[in-house]
Amino acid sequence: MFGGTLVLGFSLNMGMLSKEQVENRRLCLLVRHGQTDWNSQGRVQGQIDESRLLPKGEEQARMVGRYLKGVQFDKVYSSPLNRARRTSEIALKEMSGRLTKDDINFMDELKEIRLPWQGMFKSDILSKYPEYETYHNSPAELEVDGFTPVHDLHVQSEAAWTKILSSDFDRCLVIAHNQTNRALLGKAMGLPVSRHHSFSQDNCCFNLIESRNGNLQLLWSNVSHDGVYVPTKKPPKDRVRLEMQCIAGLEAILKIDGEEYNFEGGSSSELLDRVQTSSSRHAVLIGGSLSDLCAEMMQIPSLKLCDGGVASILLRRNDPSFCPHLEVFCASKDAMNLVERPTGMQSPAFL
Q: Is the CA virtual torsion 63, 54, 89, 233 positive or negative?
């Protein structure tokens, strides 16, 4: 159904896997923890284990469990930090499946990034750590007090993937953190550390990754636990959001600045130029053959947008050097139907 494959972005020793592990289709659902008090306060958590889930965060975890009720997971992995631990425990209890909190495999490799400013309010960081700008603009170059936080996180995430994919499962659930999930997705898709900020990760969002023949395919990214697959927050003033939806048989139409343009056969460079030079903060592209455009816009060759799929990409106005940011991705109509499934209905057939 999903035409392309995403080659692993690291050297997984295939000899570590059984023939069945290599050839079988396996699914990994990656989830971020629920909202915490420190999330609400704008404090950087990192590896400090003092924050706790808010009532809202606990309800988000329960919604994850209700959404996945009836899905049989073979393995559950979680960061040992409290916010991820509690999210996994609450979700499993709500799912009422054969796995319980006693079956959770806690992995240090899933811990959040360790940062020198962890524990600080975000508004106070830059005055003490000018490297904070480097973290946002050039994450691969960040070095503070003799260690390289983002690079180290990607090494850690490589180890996490190796351990997870070496285990026996058809479906596994992984609960981790914002930056950890970004690194896991980046590693899975073969992106360099410099592309660390290419993905959004909201509290209790879903990321669905397929493993087959030693390749990984991204099916969802940052899909909301409550079924919202289009960002509702306005983009920053210097950014423009491009929403793409693939509809088979429809000529590509670009809607921007209150106008509509036939974009059938248009190139990614034309699209980038038109969107980034616009005065609008929102553009929509709908059509039947958007897979290559989506992949080219995100600079991820194997990112496949199939019939019915949607993607939301954030770009910086008048800055072609800005690394595109994937806010939401849902690969196909089947995946979209699953996202829209009302709570309480039959279990997701896709999983």
A: positive
φ, ψ of residue 226 to 5 degrees: the values are -105, 15
Catalytic residue among 89, 109, 112, 131: 112
Best CA proximity match to 4, nearest among 310, 215, 186, 191: 215
Q: Is 282 noted as a catalytic residue in this protein?
A: no
* CA angle, residues 202, 207, 209, in degrees to nearest 5: 165
Q: Are strands 253-256 and 282-287 parallel, antiparallel or unpaired?
A: antiparallel
Angle between the 268-276 and 291-298 helix axes, to the nearest 10 degrees?
A: 60
Strand partners of residue 223: 206
Calpha distance 51→121 (Å, rounded): 13
pTM for the predicted model, two decimal places: 0.89
Q: Between β-strands 171-176 and 75-78, what pairing exists: parallel, antiparallel or unpaired? A: parallel
Q: Is 112 a catalytic residue?
A: yes
Catalytic one among 33, 154, 196, 225?
Answer: 33
Cα torsion for 57, 61, 63, 67, to the nearest 10°?
A: 150
pLDDT tens-digit series, residues 173-217: 999 999 999 999 999 999 999 999 999 999 999 999 988 777 788
